[in-house]
Amino acid sequence: MNRRNFFNGAAATAMGAVAAASVSRVALAALPEPVLQTSPATMPPLVPGTGRPYNPVVTLNGWTLPWRMNQGVKEFHLVAEPVVREMAPGFKANMWGYNGQSPGPTIEVVEGDRVRLFVTNKLPEHTSVHWHGQRLPNGMDGVSGLTQPPIPVGKTFVYEFVARRPGTFMYHPHADEMTQMAMGMMGFWVTHPKAKNPLISEVDRDFCFLLNAYDIDPGSMTPKAMTMLDFNLWSWNSRVFPGIDTLNVRKMDKVRIRVGNLTMTNHPIHLHGHEFVVTGSDGGPWPLAARVPEITTDIAVGQMRQFEFVADEEGDWAFHCHKSHHTMNAMGHNVPNMIGVDHRGLVGKLQRAMPDYMVMGERGMADMGEMEMPIPDNTAPMMTGQGPYGGVEMGGMFSILKVRKDQKPGDYKDPGWYAQPPGTRAFEWKGALSEPTRPAMHEGMHHGHGSMPLSAPATVETEVQVRKPAGTAHH
Ligand SMILES: [Cu+2]
């Protein structure tokens, strides 16, 4: 052992002893049984049976971790471990997560709660947990090497602090962070207010999810951890459309949606049919004077946003990231733009040599949505999802807000497709079409008389003389 390793080892041992001494013996004597989740479905809200009451959240394609009260302390047990996450029906990924799923379970506590979190490391390498946004003692911040030694393989560490401020937070490793987050290690954290708070609304439905991204080659199962920017799966809670559950609400419900971004780029999250107000971030509830109506809110990397609205318009409303490449599943982006290129004659010739040869996109890419093209096993189709009127032609970060007047309070079941009242849907015009009137060309219009030509100018023959530069070596 060289001197540097010896020093690090000694420091780690000393810090470990300090951390252990500050945690009560009762906690270490008996830790709560870890609870595992085997389903990727959205679980109903976990109504608190013990501790202070609160109005629970619903995690999209996720769940809330049960706890136990131990002499006034709320105890949770997180198990960091490899998991198989179903990202969409028919498409599974080898990930790292917590308690059987990726992301890990949502942790819900109440402002002022003393929280004790046992973290068992069943990964093949060390880890730690950083409690993003929490006020806590420095040694509980979970930054491996800086505030604690990493949790070795097979070991359990204990974190303990008081959830001092209410809000929308998350947790993730702060040890080999690039790999562990690329593999799916993250989870949501909500601290509910302990009393009425003038800046925190009481809502009927409270949804939360994390934005995450993966790079998984079609036909394979394991994310490529080295990818920095060029991800091919844009997901909400490690699910891609049509695998993301819909947000089902009752008409006139007050709805809050909380979103955290743990990808490598920003996501403008956009809701159809309603305006919302951003009411807070991981920094806390926003002052009323800072709140403006929006229909899209951009969430930068490492940020969280919560926004609220009254669901007063019945229907099936698209809810998605507005970056159009983020509502697609795995695809190649280095495809030439073939729009407008008529190469039908060529296809026949090429198909004689390569029977599977297909030309994509000479009329756009919409055919991809319904194409019966063979794709590798364990691959989410690029753009898919059937709606009541055909292919939705989406993937990735896309879901639907379903607003129904007969959705029961507390019922989160998918009500099916919206039955639009007769006469309220866009329809085909079957009457006569008149030709658009194009203004006649006026002589001189394209000679810079101050007005733009409204149609293509008549061809003017121009003689061009091309002269090779003199004195170059090329002839
Ligand atoms: Cu996006």
Short description:
This protein is mostly beta strands. The chain has helices at about 5-20, 25-30, 175-180, 345-355, and strands at about 60, 70, 75-90, 90-100, 105-110, 115-120, 130, 155-160, 165-170, 185-190, 205-215, 235, 245-250, 255-260, 265-270, 275-280, 285, 295, 295-300, 305-310, 315-320, 385, 390-395, 400-405. The model is unreliable at about 1-20 and about 445-450 (pLDDT under 50).
Describe this structure in words.
The structure is a single chain. The strands form five sheets. Strands 1, 11, 12, 14, 16, 17, 18 and 20 form an eight-stranded mixed sheet that branches. 8% of the residues lie in helices and 29% in strands. The chain has 475 residues and is mainly beta. Residues 1-21 and 446-451 have low confidence and may be disordered. The protein has two domains: 34-203, Immunoglobulin-like, CATH 2.60.40; 214-404, Immunoglobulin-like, CATH 2.60.40.420. The protein starts with a helix and ends in a 71-residue tail after the last strand. The chain is built from four helices and 24 strands. The longest helix has 19 residues, at 3-21. The structure holds copper (II) ion. Copper (II) ion is lined by residues 234, 267, 321, 323, 326, 397.
